[in-house]
């Protein structure tokens, strides 16, 4: 232990030498905000209040002390529609995805994006290898329980995501178009239609600073919102928004009113829908999990209210209401693949979600979020337009959590928390830490859910939970080491479905605050006797691979 502590101290000292060369403690980097001049508080109080600034001249707020370009600055009730849907990187080893820029009345064009691709291979052993065969096999893609946003998913092995974003506008109106895919075609052996999102989002964002205290934002078009996200820039380590994520064609109106210099009242309201119906006779095949003609067009009505507390330790408290429903009779055609449900006589499907969350936006005390939601569903199998706990259709939600008997009718309670802590930012406080030096980032996270009621006896009363921890040490500007552990218990009625996951990683970069990463990882699953996959990848215990090697690389700009 003594030698280990001496080695750690030496590594830290080497990193400190590199940090001193940067001399960021004495001179902030170019992206730092101007230093605040000392002020006499009593003299400040005696100054009269300045007159309201005209709309076109309202200056942008200065970034907080220690701000690194790309860090979250705005406080809202949900995840910004600008945020990409890419996978979470280990320990924040690269800075976030998009750099806020000062807006003006001049129209400008901006191209930005995020790219991450992963070469993932699983390893196994042949039972009867011939003299001309290796005993060890390498298989792609790996067959594991890990699926993006799924109940059994952990995101321990990172996946692929490519997103191109085109912005045109000014401080008051902006057009945004996104192209995205989670399966770059040239890197795959076959093209899966639903993986190519093409023009995934296209929307207008209107910003109206009505007064110095009231600002309105109106988003109109094709986009998605996310509420109850546990991560600073995304849904969190488990890639599932706890409250819900409505998406489709529609609008969201947000209002922020400053009650005081540090307290704001925030409200949002929106209506969205999925109106692109599959024509009669069309639909999915065995390899394509897309919509089918028996699924109606659906709407999502959502409303939110909360408080934003600004300052050195900013908080957001939110209450959420979402209602996903369909009232469409034109496609009431019985689907022979669902003998338990006659779609020709179906009731109108609906699901109501009530939720609450508390978030502490990243500061020297870390980034923390806790969220909970209650869902009451009736025939949710037929719903579209809202992602609830990682299931982007009612069909997936039914197969994973509610059970197919009863067509996805039941009640759910889902909760989660996540806490990410930068030790360097904490130890440097109250001096600003600009990220230009060694850092140890630790994270703990957990999700828990229970099926309060279900018409499917095999799902009724079932409880699930998963928890994990990750530590990432950035000891050189070019190298970080990360380790992660997860435990997943998807079914309280059968403990043999539970499993453990271990995943060590090496992360390479070109600078302390670089825009790119190359990650080499190894992931090992320790399965229970009855562990299996989940929809749409229903692998049996015998079909699951238990080891994975991955080379992941990506960049944002």
Strand content: 35-45%
Tell me the major beta sheet: 18 strands, antiparallel, barrel
- Estimate the global geometry from the Cα principal axes: globular
What pattern of helices and strands is seen along the backbone? HHEEEEEEEEEEEEEEHEHEEEEEE
Work out the helicity level. under 10%
Structure described in brief:
The protein is mostly beta strands.
Give a description of the structure.
The protein has helices spanning 2-22, 41-46, 394-402, 423-428, and strands at 108-125, 136-139, 161-169, 173-181, 196-209, 214-224, 245-258, 263-274, 298-309, 315-325, 350-363, 366-378, 384-388, 391-393, 410-422, 439-454, 463-476, 479-489, 499-508, 516-527, 547-556. It is mainly β. It has an 18-stranded antiparallel β-barrel.
What key attributes describe this structure?
557 residues, mainly beta, 4 helices, 42% strand, globular, signal, Alginate export domain-containing protein
